[in-house]
From TrEMBL:
Record-stated family: Belongs to the TRAFAC class translation factor GTPase superfamily. Classic translation factor GTPase family. IF-2 subfamily.
Chain ranges of the Tr-type G domain: 77-246
Spans traversing the lipid bilayer: none
GO molecular function: GTP binding; GTPase activity; translation initiation factor activity
Function field: One of the essential components for the initiation of protein synthesis. Protects formylmethionyl-tRNA from spontaneous hydrolysis and promotes its binding to the 30S ribosomal subunits. Also involved in the hydrolysis of GTP during the formation of the 70S ribosomal complex.
Upper classification of the organism: Bacteria, Bacillati, Bacillota, Negativicutes, Veillonellales
Record keywords, A-Z: Cytoplasm, GTP-binding, Initiation factor, Nucleotide-binding, Protein biosynthesis
This protein's name: Translation initiation factor IF-2
Gene: infB
Protein's organism: Megasphaera stantonii
Amino acid sequence: PETIIVKDFAEKLGREVGEVIKKLLMGGIMATINQEIDFETASLIADEFGVTVTQEAPPEDPTEIEEIVDAPETLKVRPPVVTIMGHVDHGKTSLLDAIRQTNVTSHEAGGITQHIGAYQVRYNGKKITFMDTPGHEAFTAMRARGAQVTDIAVLVVAADDGVMPQTVESINHAKSAGVPIIVAINKIDKESANPEHVMQQLTEYGLISEEWGGDTIMVPVSAHKKIGLDDLLENILVLAEVSELKANPNRPAQGVVIEAKLDKGRGPVASVLIQKGTLHVGDTIIVGPCFGKVRAMNNERGERVKKAEPSIPVEILGLNDVPEAGDILDVTDEKTARSVAEKRMEKKRSSALHVNAKVTLDDLFNQI
Ligand code: GTP
Ligand code: MG
């Protein structure tokens, strides 16, 4: 509310009403015990009593889960979440595969690798989470729902092809999301490779390499010949450290859906990147308009895990329905999960209805 009644205000301050009325008078405001005063006036008077007031939160939105505010001292360093972006065929998948092979497959041999849209690499004792989804989806679908997933964007540009339309698109996505870019100039093993030309082209988009006096890290790599991978990983870790990426692991989990599907045998399956808190098997969750209890969790190697901390991607089972990429996961109690999920479903249905109505109308016009 924008206003408060003098009597209630005095009570909140823990002061006599008379004292408050006197202070108001001194400020040139004639007010009675039952009069309403506005927030600005109230905060000025409160100041005089040495009290800082904050405005009450707006009425609760039944489709929202109350946000937990983490005190600075609860925050711990978490691994960076990195998205690989770039033009078609410039070598995004090859680069991810190369990084993965040199770093994780050794102790993964024989394990069945599951596709969960993200995976972790351990390098120099530190973890890095790579988003395995096409870079554009990671940005568009997720950001459309207000979820920021990526900490660092690795822009892959083929040294023999140079800057192309999707290279520019990727730069724009990363920039508008405020995500720092590391450039990987790929395919330097090729005869026709011209890394300098790529660097030259990138200056037109405000990306100037450190070598040339700018502040963008550019690493020449070859996914095929496994050149420059250490350099790239080291730079990712340095940038992560500078960015001071932190989260509170000791609170109810919050995360974002990377991808989800209906599995014949297992029911709804959602790959989720945990962003805050720790998710445990048995937790009651709400994920977009879906809810349930975490029945089981798998990491990207298909191994069962009991908990997942910030920046960890996991596959979760136990939801009542299939959520969408970008939907937010929250841990809450069962009653809240049920009722909020229901409200969200209603909202989703009614907006779908609107869309349909509009389409029908347009169709009608088109037929006339
Ligand atoms: P999309 O997913 O289709 O956008 O492509 P991508 O960016 O994932 O590229 P991908 O890894 O599929 O590689 C495209 C082609 O480039 C393939 O034929 C790769 O073998 C080749 N390629 C990738 N990296 C290198 C490299 O370092 N050197 C050479 N010579 N070829 C490469
Ligand atoms: Mg690919």
